Amino acid sequence: MTVTEEMHNGIIADLREETSPLAHETAATTGLEKSTEGSANENDVLEGAVVLVDQPHRSGQVDLLAELAVRRQERSPLVPVWLRSRADALHVVKWQAEHAGYVFAYHLLRAPKYAVKLLARTPAGAWRLLVELVRWLLDLEGHPVRRAAVSKEQAAEYLALSRQRDNRVKARLWTLLIGAVTLIVAGILVAVVTPTWVHWAIVGMLIGVLGALGSPADQPLLDRAVVPARVRKLTSDQVLDALGSLGISAVNQALGKKGRGITFPAPIMRDGPGWRAEVDLPLGVTVSEVLDKRDKLASGLRRALGCVWPEPVSEEHPGRLVLWVGDQEMRKARQPAWPLAKSGQVSLFEPVPYGNDQRGRPISILLMFANVLIGSMPRYGKTFALRVLLLACALDPLAELRLFELKGTGDLSALEKVAHHYAKGATDSAKAACVASLADVYAELDRRAEVIDGLPRHEAPEFKITPELAARRDLGLHPVVVAIDECQELFADDEYGEEAAKYATAIIKRGPALGIILILATQRPDKDSLPKAISANAGIRICLRVMGWQENDMILGTGMHQAGVKATMFTLNDKGISWAVGIAEDPVIVRSAYLDGPTSELIADRAHQLRQAAGMLSGQAIGQQPPQRVSYDLLADILAVTTAKEEKIWNSAVVERLTQFRPDAYGQWADLEDDAKTATLTARLKEYGVKTDDTWGRDSAGNGRNRKGFNRADVAEAYGQRKTQL
Ligand SMILES: Nc1ncnc2c1ncn2[C@@H]1O[C@H](COP(=O)(O)OP(=O)(O)OP(=O)(O)O)[C@@H](O)[C@H]1O
């Protein structure tokens, strides 16, 4: 193989025909150029021409277009950034008005002090006025010129200047005399004719003028109403200095004398209440490395930690850093009110307001067709975040709420009045209720799938619930929200854990398309407390402060920490602030709306009224019993309601018998359609490894037909196996 061929397979192509003079030159100097026609020497292994890896720049249309595109990016925006959104414009106008009002009030309060200062400066002002008057009267500004004429012995010039000066002084003397007489007469007139307040006003004016004239240049009359430069502008030098202080050697090299420097792909600009800088870090340095040193970065920028928010840009290379530096710490910045706090209702098919990002922009979450996982170390705002989402859900009268707060402090108690199922506490009864409710929803999965499957295709074109279907009461496809706070209490429980995990896994996988939303919050996101199958299938992930990358990735998804999405960067004071994945294209930093207990009560009261008016209160909210965990054995019960002679039997027939045999356990199946009964029992039998199949039988009218059924012997075998395992 020739070198050229070899290169062709690698990164260097044989561009013999197009080879540039530069390439030839380089090849010649390295002695590698070889005539393609020359006689082949046996030792020659080289053919063709060596081509430079870096081709010389060729100007052409493509380059021009690229350049134009770059230049377009450099254009300043036609409309200033703050005028683009109504909210931002209002913010700026309000700020200006408030600022002007503040400055006015500040000086008004100090008016007496300013008056005293002026009075004290009046003698100096009068003296300065007198000096200026004398200088003018005696034409002292011409004195140096006249002296120069004397010293140069220019007699004619001196005589002309003296004459001019005498005339000037005479004229000015007359002007002054007339002015003084006029002033005295006017003064007497004013003193006699005008009321006293005019006298005082004139005295005040005189003091003002003389006081201002007497003010030293370095001692301004007015105090400073605003301490300047509290909010410093962010400059590229500051950013470079800060990056240089991180101790990352590649950054230091780039900033060093022979380094390539660090580039800014866009100008540093105002973005909301702060500054935004985009930085291309040196080759090989990732944003992740900078995120690890957020505190050092803040120190380098000389800003509070809560103001400094470095972020990766997922659609760019891993070295593209967006640095947003707020005027104020995020936790101290005034949070806009939650849009639903005072009024309004929602549809879960639309995004619901959740909180704000660092720039104060509202962040909403589309809950429909998703599941949510919220995690953090204790006391960083999980329950508050969960409560915001649940209060929004409560304001959709169609949504059925099943709420389990397994901490027991009553954080979700405001919502009890609207909940279909509600239990609190890390007690056995609360866990049992939670498992029973999950089992209920688990069975609901099949029923809903059957219903959707049975609909005409144009009503459910994507095989999932639409707002129209959700609103039809006859179908029972309304949104169901199952929320479990401190879910580790349930999943790590010896008695309930396994069963709960089984239901939750199925719900998290199949629920979204069927209008069932599972929201889990946990303070212990390890594999025992949160089964992998559950954490892996959550679409929306909210991670408040955690201590290590494992917890971070368990909540936000594998590789997130490595990619720079690090909830470990939050500090002690960053309560309610989280990384959220799955609510926008890129992960976002978001602070949940702060809704305290009393506010939550008021919102829940409104939700109650909405539901009452819509006739949508159900379950415990209208006094029904909490869900009971039925301790029964389905296999034993099937064997009890069938006889050995019935080798094969239809599901629907068995369900009928079961509902009569044990109404407390199977009563909820009684009202199901025939097909739903069949599907429900199929799903339950599958859990025990019993298969169902088409089975020949006769219906109540005596007509023979095929329907889903099972072999009684299979049930007996599964039952026997279970017994031996126990
Ligand atoms: N958005 C927020 N803004 C400001 N402070 C908040 C916010 N959310 C929560 N907090 C503060 O954080 C504290 C802890 O919140 P919360 O009870 O939700 O934490 P938690 O993570 O659920 O704790 P635990 O694990 O002990 O249940 C609250 O008392 C509240 O003062």
From TrEMBL:
Mind telling me which InterPro entries this protein's record contains?
FtsK/SpoIIIE/SftA, FtsK_dom, P-loop_NTPase
The protein's matches in PROSITE patterns, at most eight in alphabetical order, are given as: FTSK
**Domain FtsK, residue spans:** 349-553
- The ranges of region (Disordered) come to 1-40, 695-714
Membrane-spanning intervals of the chain: 173-191
Keywords tagged on the record: ATP-binding, Membrane, Nucleotide-binding, Transmembrane, Transmembrane helix
Bias class Basic and acidic residues marks the residues at 1-19
Q: Where does ATP bind?
A: S376, M377, P378, R379, Y380, G381, K382, T383
Tell me where on the tree of life, at the top rank, the source sits: Bacteria
Q: Where is the composition biased (Polar residues)?
A: 27-40
Q: What name does this protein carry? A: FtsK/SpoIIIE domain-containing protein
Q: Specify the species.
A: Nonomuraea antimicrobica
